[in-house]
Design a protein that fits this description.
Radius of gyration: 24 Å
Largest sheet: 6 strands, mixed
Order of helices and strands: HHEHEEEEHEHEEEHEEHHHEEHEHEEH
Structural class: alpha/beta
Strand content: 15-25%
Number of strands: 16
Strand order of the largest sheet: 1-2-6-3-7-15
CATH architecture of the largest domain: 3-Layer(aba) Sandwich
Length: 427
């Protein structure tokens, strides 16, 4: 691997000015949900110019929409196509998926941005704009890895499948559609922003909604009613107790630095209609973390049992049980063994490029890698440039040096994982 490092690094240095402009162009495209087509068509043209076999399609059909892992707030995707580019190998090597998403969250309050959210401006080695870190910088690193090896005349034995998908921010319908279209590989890399840490495990998550009932009364005689707001406090206590119980079971050292490996977060609370009335209904909405290796149905059952136990402590809940609904976004957990061959190769490449042993941890959030691992039999490792602390925030940015380091690591990893064909190999 070491004999390739200088060649790859030199080639990336030559390509850097053009590559930075390409990333600026990508970030300037406001590819929020429902508006990804302009960027996806640009990426498709780029992949075609690189000689890859390009597949651009709008996902649809009953198989997708009725799949048990389909999650999306919409069912039509005319302006949100998927793009896949395949760099065919010569045969006899292992295949690799490079999976990234182009959908970005909205910019939010633009007054909190120092510049336009889609400026793509470069200041002090950082490129700013919504989606720079999550995750267009990682997507560029993956594309550059292919482009660099091509420029060096390399032919790999195994196929490399570059995936530019939509809908990751809503739960992964784009990657699900790619799986149903037949795209699978021996392993995958997902260049989400990990700050160049390796995440072989990632938690899953799912959204839930709770309805807590009370009995209305006039505020002046509130003792004649039952406050759903007060009852919701007991429900919140039960959720916190469940979170503690679930996290006590986790002894994986990859979670050692996370205070709460698989949190249960309540992010929405709504209740009551009038200040002088006792609230008769409260709605809670939240996110439940799911551990790697845990079935999502198992986590759901534990939530249901925790809510049912409320009746043992409060008669009100016996007659008026909390209603639980699973809705909206969902991300599947995933795990790759520490001794998986791709893990070993990736760590070696990181050591070579970064000059230190890489940090290996568990992801505190979910990605499309969980779907690849579970449904496509494609073990997925999450590794990429950028930090989550600026993703989804105003003034999002990515450090350009990290993008090019990641591209170098990916190129070295592809050489080892896919294998170099004798024809065209560089001594």
């Amino acid at each position: 691997m070491a004999r390739w490092r200088d060649k790859i690094r030199k080639q990336l240095a030559e390509e850097r000015p053009a590559a930075v402009e390409l990333l600026r162009d990508w970030v300037r495209e406001p590819s929020v949900q429902g508006a990804e087509r302009p960027l996806q068509e640009k990426i498709a043209r780029r992949l075609a110019a690189m000689g890859l076999k390009v597949d651009l399609w709008v996902m649809e059909g009953e198989e997708l929409l009725h799949h048990p892992y389909f999650v999306s707030p919409r069912t039509t995707f005319a302006d949100s196509p998927n793009v896949v580019g395949v760099w065919p190998g010569t045969g006899g090597g292992r295949s690799l998926i490079l999976n990234g998403h182009v959908d970005v969250v909205p910019a939010g309050d633009e007054r909190q941005w120092q510049e336009d959210p889609f400026s793509g401006s470069v200041v002090d080695g950082k490129l700013y704009g919504r989606g720079a870190t999550d995750m267009k910088g990682g997507n560029l690193a993956a594309l550059l890895a292919i482009q660099t090896l091509q420029a060096l005349g390399v032919r790999l034995k195994g196929d490399v499948i570059f995936q530019s998908v939509v809908e990751e921010e809503s739960g992964g319908a784009g990657t699900l559609a790619a799986i149903l279209r037949g795209y699978r590989a021996d392993a995958a890399l997902v260049p989400e922003p990990t700050n160049m840490k390796i995440f072989p495990k990632q938690q899953g998550s799912m959204w839930f909604r709770l309805w807590i009932k009370g009995r209305s009364a006039h505020g002046g005689t509130r003792y004649e009613g039952v406050s759903a707001i007060e009852k919701s406090m007991r429900v919140l206590q039960a959720i916190r107790q469940l979170e503690e119980e679930r996290n006590r079971r986790i002894d994986d050292p990859l979670y050692a630095k996370l205070p709460i490996p698989i949190p249960i977060n309540v992010g929405v609370i709504e209740g009551g209609k009038w200040p002088s009335s006792v609230a008769d209904l409260v709605k809670l909405e939240g996110r439940m973390g799911v551990a790697p290796g845990e079935e999502m149905e198992q986590a759901q059952a534990e939530m249901e049992q925790a809510l049912q136990k409320l009746a043992e402590e409060d008669d009100w809940f016996r007659e008026h049980p909390v209603e639980l609904e699973w809705f909206g976004a969902r991300w599947v957990p995933g795990a790759v063994a520490a001794d998986h061959p791709l893990m070993l190769i990736l760590q070696e490449a990181c050591q070579l490029v970064l000059g230190r042993a890489p940090v290996v941890e568990a992801a505190p959030w979910g990605t499309d890698g969980g779907l690849l691992s579970k449904l496509a039999d494609t073990p997925a490792i999450v590794f990429g440039p950028g930090v989550t602390q600026v993703a989804h925030y105003p003034n999002e940015f990515i450090e350009l040096d990290a993008v090019f380091q990641c591209a170098e690591i990916f190129a070295l990893t592809m050489l080892q994982w896919c294998g170099v064909a004798e024809e065209g190999a560089i001594a």
